[in-house]
Specification:
Strand order of the largest sheet: 1-2-6-3-5-4
Number of helices: 17
Number of strands: 11
Mean pLDDT: 89
Helix content: 40-55%
Shape: globular
């Protein structure tokens, strides 16, 4: 029999419960609460130049002369949310096929070119987007653009290569899903949160659908979605914006204009299951996760929701002070906000020391949420959250890839360039009343799903 002894932190990560925020990392309360900080104006690391080419391609350049390298990424507005029933996993399998080479740049050419200068490259597929990225020497930028522009338009689908990559994907699914004890828990949570919405699907797809995907399916996918009007290019590092934009015009500007039409999934179905109870083998304290989800039509800015996600259960908040530092009923208690193309999500997660303490933890958190809805986030908590975000944003100046990923994902998730430019200032301007309004709109009982995860040998 399979036996597994998890740590709660691993459990939260495995379930996707500790989200990577659009404006900072998830927070954990396990040390002494920090002192109240003073406030200074926030500076954004996302100082960029933007141009939209005539064919619809958006190009962003983030110059950073501190590092002798360049990062180039192309983000396509297509992911598993755009698949149809019976074709799950198509977005991810198509991503794999993009590395099979073209006539101009045969298979392996990109890998050899990038590695020759000590660089690296990879790709990823999510519910909302597919991204391809490379890091290399500044003089490599023109060739990297040439390769991406070529495979955007000319990627073929060889049936033999498809069978090979299908096997790779099936093995990946087996390792990441079938052998992962948290897989069924994740699926149960996704289905409770999203029901008939495409977000309920697994990005990697079902085994049956992966096996059934044809070469014609992949070709049609490329033809429909891999076009300039559905893509965003981000260039960061040791580049001059004018030169980088000129290279983009040269390599991408001649591609035929086409903007894919994406279905609008912003209206979420009503929740039909709001309590999910799961159990796994192992010895660990129980985990409670509450996730609130709402349509992207919700009239609240991402800056306000980001601050709410961090302020709600900040280290200096009353529930954390009481439950983590004083009574010890919770080993972990935190919250985070996650922006998606078609939904807002805010999650509260906790490790509860004993099952008998679970209801008390929930009751104390619920009482605190009522106060937040009434505007009770204190100035010390709010200032502390802003300071944390400010420091985190400043640290992004010490990276080339970090700001590029932040910018690319923000744009692809629907934020405008102006919203990104002013994000840091918008965070500074958030008030307790802004948080109260956002909490009343998002933190509603008809928006929430509670997951209760226990372990067979966990403490009572």
């Amino acid at each position: 029999m399979f036996s597994f002894i998890p740590t709660v932190r691993y459990a939260l990560l495995a379930l996707g419960l500790v989200f990577y925020l659009a404006a900072g990392p998830a927070q954990s309360q396990s040390q002494d609460p920090p002192q109240t900080p003073t406030q200074t104006p926030t500076q954004s690391p996302l100082d960029f130049v933007h141009e939209q080419l005539a064919n619809g391609l958006s190009v962003f350049v983030i110059p950073n002369q501190a590092f002798p390298l360049v990062h180039h990424s192309i983000w396509y507005r297509v992911g598993s949310v755009d698949e149809t029933s019976g074709k799950t996993g198509l977005a991810h399998l198509a991503e794999h096929m993009m590395f099979m080479g073209t006539t101009a740049f045969p298979k392996g050419e990109l890998d050899r070119f990038v590695r020759a200068s000590g660089g690296q490259h990879n790709a990823g597929t999510s519910n909302d987007y597919t991204v391809y990225h490379q890091t290399g020497a500044p003089q490599d930028l023109s060739t990297l653009m040439a390769i991406e522009a070529d495979r955007m338009m000319n990627q073929g689908v060889d049936p033999v290569a498809l069978e090979s990559e299908r096997d790779v994907v099936l093995d990946e699914r087996r390792r990441r899903m079938d052998l992962d004890p948290y897989h069924e828990v994740r699926i149960a949570l996704q289905r409770a949160l999203f029901g008939t919405h495409p977000y309920a699907r697994e990005v990697i797809g079902s085994r049956e659908d992966i096996i059934a995907i044809t070469a014609s399916d992949v070709r049609d996918w490329f033809d429909r979605w891999y076009n300039p009007g559905g893509a965003v290019v981000v260039i960061a590092g040791q580049v001059e914006p004018a030169q980088a934009l000129e290279l983009a015009r040269r390599h991408y500007g001649a591609l035929p204009a086409h903007t894919p039409t994406r279905a609008d999934h912003r209206v979420l179905p009503d929740l039909t299951q709001q309590d999910v109870h799961m159990s796994l083998p192992g010895s660990a304290p129980p985990v409670w996760l509450r996730t609130y989800r709402a349509d992207r039509t919700l009239d609240v800015s991402p800056a306000v929701l980001t601050v709410l996600g961090r302020a709600l259960l900040a280290p200096t908040s009353a529930p954390v002070r009481t439950l983590v530092y004083e009574t010890g009923q919770a080993g972990y208690l935190g919250a985070s906000y996650n922006l998606r193309t078609f939904a807002h999500q805010l999650s509260i997660s906790s490790e509860v020391r004993r099952k008998d303490d679970l209801q008390d933890v929930i009751d104390r958190v619920d009482a605190h949420l009522e106060k937040v809805r009434a505007g009770a986030v204190g100035p010390d908590v709010l200032a502390g959250v802003k300071k944390t975000l400010r420091v985190w944003l400043e640290t992004q100046r010490d990276s080339v890839i970090g700001p590029a990923n932040l910018l690319g994902e923000a744009i692809i998730q629907g934020l405008s360039p102006s919203q990104i430019r002013t994000f840091a200032q918008d965070v500074d301007a958030v008030t307790a009343q802004d948080l109260a309004r956002a909490a009343r709109l998002l933190l509603r009982e008809d928006h929430q799903v509670d997951l209760f995860l226990s372990f067979t040998d966990g403490p009572e």
